[in-house]
Amino acid sequence: MKLAIDGMGGDNAPKAIVEGVLLALEDFPNIEIQLYGKQQELQPFLKEHARLEVIHCEEIVEPEDDPARAVRRKKDSSMTKILEAVTEGNADACLSAGNTGALMAGGLFKVGRIEGVARPALATTLPTIDGKGFLMLDLGANADAKPENLLQYAIMGYIYAKKVRGIDNPRVGLLNIGTEDKKGNDLTKQAFLLLKESNINFIGNVEARDLLDNVADVVVTDGFTGNMVLKSIEGTAGSMMSMLKEAFMASAKTKIGAVLMKNELKKLKGKLDYSEHGGAALFGLKAPVIKAHGSSNARAIYSAIRQASIMVEHNVTDIITQTIAENQEQ
């Protein structure tokens, strides 16, 4: 399979991108990578590899660029080119750590939606206390949603959790302000009824406070709510690690305790580390489009490449397409 990678996107590009690509090529013998970007900036970090092709691009989509305008006007940018590679069939999936809005806009304009999908959703795997993690969507592709959108998100999330994460019968929960069936606003009440009638393993409403306790394998919500929950989790995790570090550095006694607990603290940090979970997939498009975290290091890029390759290997897009079509016929 061929993957198209944006070598210029993200806070740590191009170094972290290239290093992640080289790690992935060593571990995944079934992939070929097309790396797009400015040759002169990529070159210092590159190593020759039989399954690596570097494609020069003159332009870069910057973080501050207007999403839609950037995709239309920067036609020789690394981000635009990876999307075109997928659209034209020269790559099976694409990945970028760059401007999220531009990647989503480009995915819609160039790759296109699966027939029957009203609105694509941004989804990623978030950590849980037991280390298993859960998939959450939508995380910001659409601020507003209709009940039918949440049903489609649930179907796509269920398929991904089953095919990519290897969960036999994923539990799907609807994020709400309470677990009772009739809780919530009009959106969640109507979505609850649609999900209850679907063929997926819907377990009912779940609350935000229970998400890290592995209450569900897939959690569905609108993009506005999902984005705030995502940033709350990321911010809380970061703050907790900072407070723990400050506490352990407070005195000679606590420093000794830190040394004794070094391995346990390392495991805790690993559970909360986004770099192990890959990127956020834009579900509902005709080919896999992966958004890696903007501050991705080499390990995070490696994980996102692994995620993209598994999606291609298990034909996730084709299965989503087929399932959406079958649900429309019912």
TrEMBL record:
Keywords: Acyltransferase, Cytoplasm, Lipid biosynthesis, Lipid metabolism, Phospholipid biosynthesis, Phospholipid metabolism, Transferase. Its main location: cytoplasm. Pathway: Lipid metabolism; phospholipid metabolism. Its EC number is 2.3.1.274. One of its GO terms (molecular function) is phosphate:acyl-[acyl carrier protein] acyltransferase activity. The keyword Transferase applies. The keyword Cytoplasm applies. GO terms for cellular component: cytoplasm. It catalyses: a fatty acyl-[ACP] + phosphate = an acyl phosphate + holo-[ACP]. Catalyzes the reversible formation of acyl-phosphate (acyl-PO(4)) from acyl-[acyl-carrier-protein] (acyl-ACP). This enzyme utilizes acyl-ACP as fatty acyl donor, but not acyl-CoA. This is Phosphate acyltransferase. It comes from Ureibacillus sinduriensis BLB-1 = JCM 15800. The lineage of its organism: Bacteria, Bacillati, Bacillota, Bacilli, Bacillales.
